[in-house]
Amino acid sequence: MSGIRQSFTLLVLGGALCLAGCRGEAPLNVVLITLDTTRADRLGCYGNQSIETPSIDRLAAEGTLYERAYTPVPITLPAHVSILTGTYPVYHGVHENSGFYVTDELTTLAEILSERGYDTAAFVGAFPLDSQTGLDQGFDLYDDNYPSSLEEGKHPTLRGFFDERPAAEVVRPALEWLDLQAGEPFFLWTHFFDPHQPQIPPSPFRERYAHDLYDGEIASVDDAIGRLLARLEELALLERTLVVLSADHGEGLGDHGEQTHALLLYSSTVRVPLLVRDPRDLTARRIKTPVATVDILPTILDRLGIEVPAVVQGELLPEREGEGGRRRAIPSETLYGALLHGWSPLGAPDLRRLDADPRSEPQALPPQRRSRRAPRPRRRGARTARSDARAAHPPSARAGAGRRRGRGGIGVARKAGPPRRPRLPREQRPG
Ligand SMILES: [Zn+2]
To answer: Which domain holds residue 303?
Structure first.
């Protein structure tokens, strides 16, 4: 081969390789970590001086931290549906943990990536995200193998809302799955339920955080995340993996009279952590532009070079301060009080107002108008999930259930009588 011809061949070959390589070489893997019931202000990287979260802090030190990230709904299932579809509840139609189903008409992140050749796996920590909800769409493996708290011999799918497994038991099978990922790319989602009530962190976190078991649960989750990141490094995968960490909602912890979440809309429950570690740029950044968890899906797709579906309502997370839509409104809702207690539905048209004083600023909660979009029809599995959930809760735990007949429907404000001063129930179902 002559020198000129050899050079030409190398040029053509180089050009062919560039078509694949210049777009990022091998596609990035994706690891999505969702923390249940985790307030941003309880993490070390968000300013909590009394907790050790070195693994989460590492993601912040090597990626972008969003200081003002919000969930569109402070309830586990609908919040996760928003994350995995990039849409608000008014679109995806899932407003509560029970009685709603993720229909086949919705397209999840797992489905999009699976269609593009990704191996997909989810490891969830608790019943609200059980495969019965339909959230398993697109996952080759959907591991919801947490122990049932109910007696043996009953309906085989009967599970209780408190059924969960600790972070260590979520990450253990996830690591085993990672070990088998010889052929990339992959999409791995891990969900950690631990900070949710009841807060019983494992040792040594139970002892170390005896003064604050909520922080202890978060610290135990951080430990599991550390194992996940370590395994990714051992397998030389972290350098080819986009890691996104967020939460479905926060926790009241007594702020505004709310101990848990789901009932009210304050920053204690709607502000969440959001971190993005892109291996192609490990510069630490902190961005104050308000963002929402519906932005996670389009951002992941954009980073992978995949076109964002037109139905997606989220926007691309800004990569620099000043980018993005500062004028953009970020709405939030909760129909928990309406569905469970006959209250008016609560909606916040724009959560950005919460930023001035996240702990004390009152939130105006105008009632929602009638929803233009009726809840989507549920499949048989949804009825099973709902009936199971109701069976798992004795009537005394379902405060307000007897007033269900009085409500007009989803998205309909109460009409009769003067406004009543809301009273928090003694017990709230976990959400
Ligand atoms: Zn949750």
So the answer is: 26-428
